[in-house]
Amino acid sequence: MTKQVKQLDRVIIRFAGDSGDGMQLTGDRFTQESAAFGNDLSTLPNFPAEIRAPQGTLPGVSSFQVHFADHDILTPGDAPDVLVAMNPAALRANLGDLPKGATVIVDTHDFSGRNLSKAGYTTSPLDDGSLDEYALHQVDLTGMTVAAVKEFGLSRKDAARAKNMFALGLLSWMYGRPTEATVDFLTRRFAKVSEIRDANITAFQSGWNFGETTEAFAVSYEIKPAPMSPGTYRNITGNLALSYGLVAGGVQSGLPVFLGSYPITPASDILHELSKHKAFGVTTFQAEDEIAGVGAAIGASFAGTLGVTTTSGPGLALKSEAIGLAVMTELPLVVIDVQRGGPSTGLPTKTEQADLLQAMFGRNGESPVPIVAPQSPGDCFDAALEAIRIAVTYRTPVLLLSDGMLANGSEPWRVPELSELPSIDPAFATGPNHAVDDGDDDFWPYLRNEETLARPWAIPGTAGLEHRIGGLEKGDGHGNISYDPANHDFMVRTRAAKVQRIAESLPPLEVDDPTGDAKVLVLGWGSTYGPIGAGVRRVRKAGYRVAQTHLRHLNPFPKDLGEVLARYDKVLVPEMNLGQLSLLLRAEYLVDAVGYNHVRGLPLKAAELAEAIGELVAQAEGVDVDLTPAPQEALS
Amino acid sequence: MTDTASPATTRKDWASDQEVRWCPGCGDYSILTAVQLLMPDLGVRPEQTVFVSGIGCSSRFPYYMNTYGMHSIHGRAPAIATGLAVARPDLDVWVVTGDGDGLSIGGNHLIHALRRNVDITILLFNNQIYGLTKGQFSPTSEVGKVTKSTPFGSLDHPFNPLSLALGAEASFVARTHDLDRQHLQETLRRAHEHRGAAFVEIYQNCNVFNDGAFDTITSKQNRGANLIPLVHGQPIRFGDEGERGVVMDDQGRAAIVDVADVGEGALLVHDEERPDPSLAFALSRLAPGPTAPTPVGVFRAVERAEYAEQVSAQLAAAQTDAGPGELSQLLTSGGTWEV
């Protein structure tokens, strides 16, 4: 049978099942296949905080969304074109996100009795007509998997567990994905248990063959590779890119990396990853608590290594006092906050960017800390290097704000050449820097570099530079305890000025304003870069003018930010919080920033953002805005 | 850790130029003097030495030592010192803390530093009161203590610092006091020589808020009758004529007896190297508080794998096995493709 092949420019697939169904692995393999094929892609894993919520229930549903295309894309997509639902709960939990007409592939095996009621269905949605508006494919994935792997003699339960690979095989056929890498992966992953290995590979191949032979699926699809600039690419998640950035920062600065950390979702993977890289001299220390994690990192920095601590919002709260100590002692320290939903324990596995003000102000006293934020999973690499550059050059703690979406999401990443990486000079103090009244040479630990206002970093083991630092106020220059009122005022201002001085080293803000005369600017930070970019594209595609810029540095702001803001009539600031960057911009620049704020634990949606941008464009330009795409010639 | 080839130093090399600002008559002065005088004897160098402290009166100590030092935040000195010692095993790292800093706000870090057995020397100045905050009860204050925050008497059952350290399986546990420089220095010398986390409780008089708390046992006239010196390999006995001693009773408890009643042969022979901590623990429970005959000296000194050394060994092994890390190789690990 020859089947029809249809061309598509992009597809969004969501794999959904029970927490124990292996949906994250399935999604990850599909992503790897798509990356290897050369599509651009973006992913969104979404899973419960419970390791194994009760089977078959709505709280136990885990999903993985992958958006892949023949062109440059920015987000995991708003609404799936295809839903693969492994049980009734997965169908019920995800159906609301589907547009009418979407393809729904359902494993029919569990659509009976108790499994239906556990998901809250009184009748089977497969029979009651409630799915009439979708392209429904009913497939007994579990039954066919068990039959396909019969020869390996597994228990029924173990045999059924390979159903995710059957589903992966089917979807791989539908979208013409290369399969070799998945077979290799399964071979390696289950190398020690041959019958499990063989069952998974067989299930995967059976799924492919089923797609090819069954009449239920008449069409397969082709999504051509996306054009990308030349280079070596790999798929990478934010947490992995961040870990690599930290390793690279150690190499580029010549400083051994010391990570003091306490496990916390969604940051733990950085600890796991860095613990593998002892060959790079990376030490990982799993501390007794969050405070000990940052404390040990501060001790390691005082010792002359690169102290790093990783956490999420609740952990950052616990580390506040110690970060203040690093502000006072002016030691390099990199603090990574992979933000999640808050307050308190909040939504541990969901994304949010509501720790900006905590990062900015969450310490006692005037306690300025530079803040940087990555904008995409791959960008976490560069953001980590930038955080290290600032920490080492300016002798200061630096906060890096990632989030759950960046941490677990992935995208193709062009691997940089080593020559592209910045070199970072620790410039340890080697001798006295000051002559005292009697003419003797002395070492003053708080005598500053005039350009950066950084103090010398003199490390133990250096004879003649012995000195004491601590949390009490320092006298300017000599660094001994000082209660002098004028000195305190001077030191408070100097610490603030030092952080502001970082702006001198930043490049001008890149503003994307293709026509050069837009009246509306959309300004964001962090992981909203993708949705904002996609929203801006929709507005432009419909024939309207809009400018976009995105902040890497939240403290200090780039020097030209005020000037950029002043160029536009309206400034829209989309954030996954209730307007934290808006607050800072309003305070600093007296600009009437308009917030677009959602805190749903999920990325912003490009389509909704486009509407919000459109409204502002309508106000600013005094026109009616219709976002139905205009014909090409209407674009100026 | 001890560099015997180092040029000799004198007390002057170890004293900083900062004016010491404890209350006149504070026990901290005698501990500072004892340490400054001891350092030249240890054959170590100021630049290789780091003193780390938390918050409290005792935690001002690093400012007065001409070494590297950090006066950090409340309770966290063991954590900061752990990072230092792990990052730089070549350094000689000391922690100075008090009963509030080390046992109250920082209790967690203390027990974890002890169980990991990081090579740091921890001096816990125990004055059984909060000094810097002006006189509230501490976690070692006796029940019923009347203080500013407990006008009707404290209800808190106190920690026994040595029992706590032994419970955390500290490999070196000792006790000394601020009125006997020789005993103090000898105890600190032993703690410094120990490879691993060494815990020393120092009874220290706060003459402003808790004056005389240890007089019953540490004053010159009472010492003979009420301090029980622990000497490795020797029967445990005390008293001006050595007339009293310690035995293990049939319940496994240490008990004080008249030697004349039981005979010299029945006395407990001190063994600080005993692998299980039960003997040391029994001795730590001998006195209900510093108001009755109390053992001083080294309770426990056993060999146990040191943490920083093992961290270094893992790093070295990884580099030996795989060679030093290659960044470009790391970045392209996993599947890549060319465009």
UniProtKB/TrEMBL annotation, chain A:
Domain Pyruvate:ferredoxin oxidoreductase core: 518-581
EC numbers for this chain: 1.2.7.-
Key words, A-Z: Oxidoreductase
Protein name: 2-oxoglutarate/2-oxoacid ferredoxin oxidoreductase, gamma subunit / 2-oxoglutarate/2-oxoacid ferredoxin oxidoreductase, alpha subunit
Domain Pyruvate/ketoisovalerate oxidoreductase catalytic span(s) in chain numbering: 20-207
Domain (Pyruvate flavodoxin/ferredoxin oxidoreductase pyrimidine binding) ranges: 256-473
One Gene Ontology molecular-function label: magnesium ion binding
